[in-house]
Specification:
InterPro entries: DNA_brk_join_enz, Integrase-like_cat_sf, Integrase_catalytic, Integrase_recombinase_N. The chain contains 18 helices and three strands. The chain is mainly α.
Amino acid sequence: MAGFTPNYLNGHNPTQAHAYGREVIREAFLRRRVPPAALDIICASLADNSLKQYEVAFKRWSKFCNDNQIDFYEASIPNVIYFLTKVFNEGTQYGTVNCIRSALSLILGSKISSDDRVQRLFKGFYRLRPPMPKYDSTWDPSIVLDYLSINYPNDLTSLASVTKKTVTLLALVTAHRMQTISKIKILNIDFNNPDHISIKIPDLIKSSRLGASQPNLILPFFVDRPIICPALALKRYLDMTQALRGDIDTLFISIKKPYRPVTAQTLGRWVKDILGESGIDTSMFTAHSARHAATSSAHRHGVNINTIRSTAGWSAVLAMQCMGYFRIWGAVAKESVASIRYGFRAIYDPSGSTCLVKSKRMARIRRNLQYWWDWLEDRTAGSCSSRHAVIRRIDAKKS
């Protein structure tokens, strides 16, 4: 792109200061002849968090347009490509550049996403700087549960301790986001079943979509280990906060006066506190990692993928993606053992201990195979020869 001059491609005057967010979107759709009566409905299609991300993109795009004398609402595809390339060369990650593209599509039209030049550009972005998973590993929930059972007994009198214990247990047993847990209303909690407590979430959440069911959280009564029973912890929390909450219907309230409903960010901070106290590396794992830890542990203990999917609120597509984390024999993986063994021969040395492939393109395959390898290791006491023997036996049965 050396010598490329955006001014030659578009002679419009630079844009002035813009009111970002919804006002930018309203103006863009007005210019595309959308009736004013429909603008509020169109703006309502965007979640608040999505709009916050788009506002950042709008500000970067506005500065670029002002610096290069480009019309904010009528830029050409070459100008957009130049802008996206500039953003990428600044070290921006693929996901962030993709978010910027989505924001530009709102104000410039769908031509941005459908243009073959932009599509080819993003394929290049992906190959040069592929998005990496947030977590390449996870932690064992039993570590946190054991810590809670020792240091957080059921007869706690501290509101902060009871609150943090309850939030953490709900996060582990439901495998839902902090956003979902923050939406729990006391009115929607059903105590009528003697085996469990059920909680309906009628509010819109991140995974809400047309035709999909809203979450129904199930908290079973753990008779064998009442000290880490999420249902009992919830009852204890409700009893302790009954006199403090007044007319607040939201389940979780602040732990200090004045008592008010708390956000998902506050819940996440409480869970992270428990993780840190338990010995989990919180510089690597956030509260959201409880979702990964819970589902991974459930699958390791033989829980069906469909049960995990319905409990955690995964879509069918997400469930297919998450099968990569559960790549073990006898589960839902479609690949044959022969192909898995071929994958090991391709990326591992003969001892099966050292990964030979360091390319980022192989990261996902390497991670998926590692889950399979760890499963074998659990059953063969870490012996490499035993692992290969298991693979040979399974292949023989398969054939």
